[in-house]
Amino acid sequence: MREIVVAAAQMGGIQKAETREEVVLRMIDLMDAAHEAGANFIVYPELSLTTFFCRYYMENESESDVWFETEMPNPRTAPLFARAKGYGMSMSFGYAELTKDGQHFNTSIQVDGDGNIVGKYRKTHLPGHSEFDENRAFQHLEKRYFEPGDTGFPVYRTLGGLFGMCICNDRRWPETYRVMGLQGVEMVTLGYNTPAVNAEKPSEGPQARLFHNRLVLQSGAYQNSTWVVAVAKAGDEDGYPLIAGTMIVDPDGRVVAETQTQGDEIVVHACDLDETRFGKATIFDFARHRRVEHYTRIVEQTGVIEPAE
Ligand code: ING
User: Fold this and answer.
1) pTM here?
2) Does residue 30 sit within a domain?
3) E strands, the chain, where?
């Protein structure tokens, strides 16, 4: 048995006016509750330090760069790293990363109980658009503010197992889980900020979005026999609603824990990494069952090529 007691630390809305220091205090409160509940690993949302600023059109980088971190840890997040190290607790969280050579990424890191960054991931699948779109009820400018990630989907050894990360829209793409599954991943952690309404289709509201959220997390877990921990930035941000739906999914695709509120809330579950073994050795024994000679299109084609008339 290789048990990890995981706390999925959902955060309610972060308002535009909220400082990093105020947000970090909320994250520390969640970490204290996780410690009380016996957790040794805490997972926070995508862009956990700021509001989802991609909903706002900003013309110049001088304006949008205020939402980015130029180093990690940094003076604003140091108290969080210190509290985690004091507890010997691993953590993962997302933030907007501005690198020394001026690259912008939607990033997530995993930090072990000694405070070492053991995993770093930069969001691959950026949804939305790069120019102001007047046809949208609100903007989703991730393609404006971030570059596609350059890390791929790494899997790394920590906490006695094989871990990987993805971010938000990545969870909708089966390739995300399979690339990690082909590295033996036993737990995928991810955060998301998902608008409660489709900006291009107002009839698609929170119920549909919560359905799709659950659908893709359960299928990703089951089809790769891995745990999936998915954590929302939920609630209302300056009048813009985000879905909750934070959950922990077991390697059979079953939801074993999920939040009940739209605010700051942890759900905790003892995840035995050995529960991934049966699926990996039988129905999803990739070596025994996959037929890669028939999968060429998946890596050779980007878009659809329909058969000739
Ligand atoms: N947010 C959304 C997400 O993938 C989205 C964008 C919502 C795309 C619904 C498609 C459908 O959950 C982020 N930040 O990717």
Assistant:
1) 0.98
2) yes
3) 3-10, 41-43, 90-98, 104-111, 117-122, 155-158, 161-167, 187-192, 227-232, 235-237, 240-242, 247-249, 255-258, 265-272
